[in-house]
Design a protein that fits this description.
This protein has one domain: HIT family, subunit A (2-Layer Sandwich). Strand 1 and strand 2 form a beta hairpin. It is globular and about 50 Å long. The chain has 149 residues and is of the alpha+beta class. A 5-stranded antiparallel β-sheet has the order 1-2-3-5-4. It contains 3 helices and 5 strands; from the N terminus they run αβββαββα.
Length: 149
């Protein structure tokens, strides 16, 4: 899988780079700002137009983000995805991507949602074991998740 961004996880002062962006202490090209969220153009995009939706408050991961804020983050991403499609940027589709935890590819410990314009041949792939699973295996997974709710 292509790296989503290869930015250092902190600013030169050691603080969270996304917190610094959210407070205006680090430069960024903003496409959305409100009291709770900022959305910026990714410094090292997968494709041109790649955006990041960032909560201004520091939340290291999805579990620490209040559910209402998570819903709002996706609402903002939805609006931005529609806006990307109305631009003249190459955009035949959109991926919303959230890496939650190091094992999932999260490099900056501040939850953020990628809004990535996609087009045929853009080179971004997610490689996995996509084989069809048995109904029994699916039922076992479903039972485990239901039990954890």
């Amino acid at each position: 899988m292509a790296e989503l961004h290869r930015m250092p996880p902190t600013t030169s002062g050691g603080e969270c780079v996304f917190c610094a962006i959210g407070t205006g202490q680090a430069p960024a090209a903003f496409v959305h700002e409100d009291d709770e969220f900022a959305a910026v153009v990714d410094l090292r995009p997968v494709t041109t137009g790649h955006l990041l939706v960032l909560p201004r408050a520091h939340h290291a991961d999805l579990a620490s983000l209040p559910a209402e804020a998570g819903a709002r983050m996706f609402t903002i991403a939805h609006t931005l995805a529609a806006a990307l499609r109305r631009t003249d940027l190459r955009c035949e589709g959109i991926n919303l991507f959230l890496a939650d935890g190091k094992a999932a590819g999260q490099e900056i410990p501040h939850v953020h949602l990628h809004v990535i314009p996609r087009f045929a041949g853009d080179g971004f792939v997610m490689d996995a074991d996509w084989r069809v699973r048995s109904r029994e295996e699916l039922a076992e997974v479903a039972a485990k998740v239901k039990a954890a709710l």
